[in-house]
Structures are given as C-alpha cells and as structure tokens.
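Subgroup meeting minutes
Present: P.N., E.W., G.H.
Scribe: E.W.

1. P.N. recapped why we're keeping a running log of single-chain structure predictions: easier to compare across weeks, and new members can see raw inputs and outputs side by side.
2. G.H. added today's entry (280 aa).
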Amino acid sequence: MVKYELIPAQLLYEGLVVPENFFEPQRASKDVICLAHCEAYVESLLSLQLDAKMVRRIGFPLSRSLVDRELYIVEGTIQSALYAHQFGVSFNTAGGTHHAGFDFGEGFCLLNDQAVAASYLYSHHIANRILIIDLDVHQGNGTAHIFQNHAAIFTFSMHGDKNFPFVKEHSYLDIPLGDGISDEKYLALLRRHLHHLFEEIDPDFVFYQGGVDILETDKLGKLNISSQGVRKRDQMILQECFDRKIPIQISMGGGYSPNIKDIVNAHIGTFRAAIDIYNF
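Output recorded in log:
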C-alpha cells in the first residue's frame, strides 16, 4: 500500500525524525519464521507452491516479490523489537500482519510479523511474559491461533464484532465491539480492560498492533472513532508501557479511509504520541 511509503516521508517532512532514526532490515530466515509458523506452510510459501485455495484465502496472487516483501516486514519487526528492548519503544512503519496463523495465510497476510518477533524474543530469553495488544478493527485471529496454548505469550484483541474475520479465534482476551461505537465508550472499555490485563499478566514486553481502521472515515471499519479518539487510544497504550517501564514494539496495521491523508495522519499521530511520552 502507498501509505507505507508516505508514512516515513511524512515523518521526515514534519521533522519528527531524521534519516538516522530509520533502519533497513534484511529478509527473515526460514528458521526464524518457523518459530511461529508451521514448517510445511513456510516451505510451500517460500517455494511459491501454495495451493490455489490458500492463495485465494490470502487474497494476493502469489509472487516472489510479495513473499520477499513479507520476509522484510517480519525481520523489520524483529529488529524493531530489539531496538524497543534497548530504547523503550520502536516502530515498524509497515507490519501488523495479524491474520496469518500457524499454518495459514489470510486477509492479505502471509506471515505474522509480531507473532514471529514475539516468538523470537521468548525463545532467546529476551522476554519472558509478552502481551500482544491488537486494536485493529479486525480481530487478530492469526495471532490468537498461533498462541492459543502458549503459557507466556498473551493476546488481547478489541475489534468489530461483525467485521472480518467472520469466524473468530479465541484470544486470551477478546472485546467485541458493536457497529458505530464512539470515542467515549471505546476508550472507557479499553482503559478498564487494559489496566486489568497489565495487572494480571505483568508483561515484560508489549507488542502493539495500532491499526487505524477504527476511524469513522474508514470504508471497512464500521466504527465511529474520531482522529482524536485514535490519538487518545495510542497515548493510553504508550503511557501504560512508559509508566511501567515495559518496552513496546509497534506495527502499523490496517487503514482504509478513502482519503489517504486521513490514514497517514492517524499513523503519524501514533509516532507523535510516542515522541511526546518518551521525550525523544
């Protein structure tokens, strides 16, 4: 999507970052991907041998450039997580491919970047209790599928109840939302459940999928959240992590407003919130 080119360009244009703040990842290796995904699925994907049914489920024609793009995204989120561990917060300007499950791709997601990165941190003993917060309008079904039986990686999804995917997985905690929910009720729900989750799980690392398809302008979202509501959502997540001294990695997730400016500005708002809270 064009937004993944516009986000870094806008960050530079507004002077929020300098070129030295960016890094360019390599492609993730098969061994690393298989920390979160089924080896047979990964082999079929990397060799471009997925069956036609799976290709339809993903929604993109399968190609080498598409697979390579996904490998770069996954490695970008791993490196971003390592930077977050070092500096407190870090972003992947793409990512949030949360519909890819253990042995399937779905909804334009081939591999699950945050699930692989969480598995990497856990397997390398960099983090011992991980919370994945998914506030995209669509349930993080793939992430829930991957970690459904994991004892130390917990998934939280707050999403449109009547939106894609229509068959939901079971996250550690799911909060289904009715169509048309507005800022006040949305933020109150998030505040209550967020506090409970942090107290109960006591994570030492957080991944945040910050989709902006909850915007009232989004053509797929069905919710009624203002741009100010999205900013307050992001501030709530970031402030909680900052106050508790928990590193947080952020991937962008979805956004489908007809006006690309609405999408980019909402994502830029997440960066602004981090810069303000972490005093960068």
